[in-house]
Here is the input.
Amino acid sequence: MGENQHATVGLYWKFAAVLCFITFIEWGVFKNDTFRSNAKLMIPLLLGLSVVKFTMVCGWYMHLRYDSNILAKIFGFSLGLALLVYTIMHLAL
Amino acid sequence: MSADAHAVHHTVTGIDNRKFGMWVLIGSECFLFGALILNYLVNRDRGLVGPKATDIFNIDITTLSTFDLLMSSVAMVLALHACQHREIKKFRFWTAMVILGGIIFLGFQYFEFHHFIHAGLGLTTNVFGSSFYLLTGCHGTHVFFGVLWLTSMLVTSFIRGKEWFPSVQLEVAGLYWHFVDVVWILIFTVVYLFVYL
Here is the structure.
């Protein structure tokens, strides 16, 4: 199991700090009245931050960055198809 | 090397079947949670009776539980790292920390559900309540089974002794745990932070 030989304990802790910091920013954005009253600003900002967290956990903690491409393709295809199907359904409902 | 470390299967893909199977499961879970999130988004404003999300959500508490789950993910990678490097004390310690993080998260969820029910939002009060409990309850059930899975591995570690390093099994359990974490990252944003939108 040498797939994650590039990841170190130090890197895991750095990512943990970044993930916590992003969550703190999300909380701050939610508490800020300027953002809360401006959906056009708040939605892309919070979605962008959650995508960053999502990518960090999948890429490094789940080792997709280091593992076989087949696994990333399985996950990417499933996630992409689910997003496509449910976005279409959401728009239709 | 332990027997588990040697038990590498020769497969067409070159990937251990257990790990490959977990990724296929995770792929199918994308559809499950996608459907539940969509169900929530469609129904959240359709409740005619009972409290609304804006009346009862406590973002401060939910942010704390998000921190907790993120930290349990860190503990999970550290447990796997220790297991792969045959450090028994660290492997057991970090696995115990993951379990503790999961239990604390479930405690937060129990507190939240208890508060909501006392505020008048039951499972059948309105469609908002039903879709909310279905989504977060399904996620909480995943956390619960993750806690059971990791607890069984920790107990087995004490039974099998200091030479048992189940790297592949722990990696598969870790994939499951991290996926539960990324699902919560999305739920935290879409369900809780978008409550006023």
Summary: Chain B touches chain A through 51 residues (CB under 8 Å).
